[in-house]
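Dock guanosine-5'-triphosphate; give full complex structure.
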Amino acid sequence: MKTKKLRISLVGRTNAGKSTLINRIVGEKISIQNKKINTTQDTIIGIRNIKESQLLFYDTPGSNFLKNLDSQSKKLKKNLWSGIDESDLILYLVDASSINTKFLFEQLEKINETKKKIIVAFNKTDLILNKKLLPIINKISNQFNIESFFTISAKKNIGIDDILNFLKKYTYPSKWEYLNDEITNKDDKFFLSELLRETLLTYLHKEIPYNISIRTTNFKELSKSDIKIKQKILIQEKRYKKIILGKKGSMIKKIREECQKKIKSVFKKKIHLYIELIT
Ligand SMILES: Nc1nc2c(ncn2[C@@H]2O[C@H](COP(=O)(O)OP(=O)(O)OP(=O)(O)O)[C@@H](O)[C@H]2O)c(=O)[nH]1
Ligand SMILES: [Mg+2]
């Protein structure tokens, strides 16, 4: 078989739905999603093979921090641009239910400088009428050279196949980078740590989830139906420990139970999860 590939970077403001879209395309959850900002921090690759073509989607961190200069933003920015650099084409995703025109044009201007091919997809169209988007689509196409526009809903699975069919036209002869059954570049331990981070984003407020790091230190199949997992939360500031523990340990208990449930729904096995807090 003559194999082909295409590398696509998913770029867009935080909360546009990039991770939701990549999970939809891959058909499994590989990237965590949350309504808080800057959920994705590393570049995660999602792989979808269609016949002879391998499509590689780079889920990048949300791009609303381009002007910030703190160290966290710098790290995210670096991961974003390396994702863009490695790709053949940019899929710019817009939250159609809350468009900030000024921001959108600034962003398009920036990515246009890369000289890469760009397609624009308006996501969350389950929340608005498509025809409301026509003026903005006209304005964008007057100013930029966009290959194509799409209106989709990652959550409701609308319009995704149209994008995939379109992207197939841009694939070029090449060896596949990943084996047929691989769906992501990240391993189980990374994904487990991400699931814990997703849980922390849900239960904790504001800055805490961004100021801790997580390691999954142990992943052991105890039997065909049981998995034992150990995770460590490394806390930089002591005051956060009290908050994560909660009254008589009630918060960490909730977090552990919720995370265990998430892991169970992915691995379809009984999970024995242990979480340790380290300051
Ligand atoms: N109604 C609706 N909500 C959506 C859709 N796609 C994503 N969302 C929601 O939008 C929120 C953000 O989704 P994410 O996939 O985490 O967004 P992201 O672009 O990866 O965000 P960052 O990682 O922070 O850059 C989540 O609460 C999703 O459930 C959609 O098509 N319709
Ligand atoms: Mg994301």
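Observed: The longest helix spans residues 250-267.
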